[in-house]
Amino acid sequence: MENEAKKRRPFLQRAALFLLSSVLSLVLLGLIALWVLLRPDSVLPDHWNPTRPLSITAPVTPVTRWQLRAASQDEAVCRGVLAQAGVGFSQMEPLVSGEHCGISQRGSLSSLVGAQVTPIETRCATALRLAMWEHHDIQPAARQHLGSNVSQLLHIGSYNCRKMRTARGNEDAWSSHATAAAFDITGALLADGRRLTLLKDWKGATDESAFLRQIWRGSCKWFRLVLGPDYNRLHADHFHLQTSGWGFCR
Fold first, then answer.
1. Where are the transmembrane segments (predicted)?
2. What is the distance between the alpha carbons of residues 120 and 45, in angstroms, rounded to a whole number?
3. pLDDT confidence band for 141 (50 / 70 / 90)
């Protein structure tokens, strides 16, 4: 038995070395392939390349969320992405209003990729997520359900230096609106002249209701916290779209 064990030992050692060599070779080949693919002159499309800036109008891939996060954290990149897509976002000086209120990455938003908005002060990261939602969810859903594009998104603001409001009243915590990390949408104007509002069109088995419910679901892909008419009476007339949060959508 002892002799047989001695004979097997070299074989096991060679097998282990072969296995280790194979794994290291695969890792090395993978690193080389990754280096080649992620080079600036790579043939890999930008929307599949995590080292390239986000493009709002590019197809959505598993890399898009990484690019969106990177653009949201870098003001210069964020503004460049908006400008490249033709979004109207005019730069403004940062606003500081007390310990809890203010707007970093501040600008005046007047249009998205295909829809106008009444000019409103917000932060670049908020405008960026709004533009992604409008291009990838709102316009396709409008064409699908209503046979028309959306010409304008209706809203009731972004920045508001206030504490949170709940069905129980005001809370001690500050609202995400206090830093313009949220946006409230009330409806949409269509290119054919129709006016849709959540208060009027959310309920029922209509094309308008189907459109609003589809874009509500779509907003949950781009915003970290979304509250709508089904959440509580305070949101009966608008979507609360928040860039921060824990992935809650109701």
1. 16-38
2. 34
3. very high
> Which residues have a Cβ under 8 Å from the Cβ of 46 and sit 6 or more positions away?
52, 53, 55, 58
Q: Give the residue from 189, 94, 80, 173 showing the smallest Cα distance to 128.
A: 80
Q: Is 159 exposed, middle or buried (0-12, 13-18, 19+ CB in 10 A)?
A: buried
For range 114-141, the mean pLDDT = 98
- pLDDT score for 18: 64
The single-letter code of the amino acid at 202 is: W
Find, among 74, 102, 98, 79, the residue nearest to 89 by Cα: 79
pLDDT score at 136: 98
Confidence of residue 21 (pLDDT cuts 50, 70, 90): low
Residue of 231, 216, 104 whose CA lies nearest to 166? 231
Closest CA to 54 of 87, 84, 86, 75: 84
Domain parsing of the chain, residue ranges: 1-37, 49-249
pLDDT of residue 32: 46
Local confidence band at 172 (pLDDT 50, 70, 90 cut-offs): confident
Q: What is the pTM of this model?
A: 0.84
Q: Is the pLDDT of residue 197 over 70?
A: yes
